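Quick question, first post here. What does this chain look like in 3D?
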Amino acid sequence: MRRTWQAVKDAIEESALTPRQRELVLLDLLGLRRSQSAEVMGVTPATLTTYWKAIYERYDLHGTDARAALHERLFPYLQVSGLFQQL
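> Answer (accepted):
Ran it through. Tokens below.
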């Protein structure tokens, strides 16, 4: 599991995301709901929507599968779906 965390950390750090966007993606990977992520980050859920839109624009992602496509783009060698729910 430690190698997996390191691989995720490395991929996030190498991404084109801002620090706040990186934080949001990590919270999403941990399985937090929108309201929980907003509370942790100290912003409103509406602000998270703005962050997600910027992330999707940065990677030219659209549609209902945008989040899954983002995970595939950021973590091409990792199976991140449900990864941290094993903890």
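The domain at 2-79 is CATH 1.10.10 (Arc Repressor Mutant, subunit A).
The radius of gyration is 12 Å.
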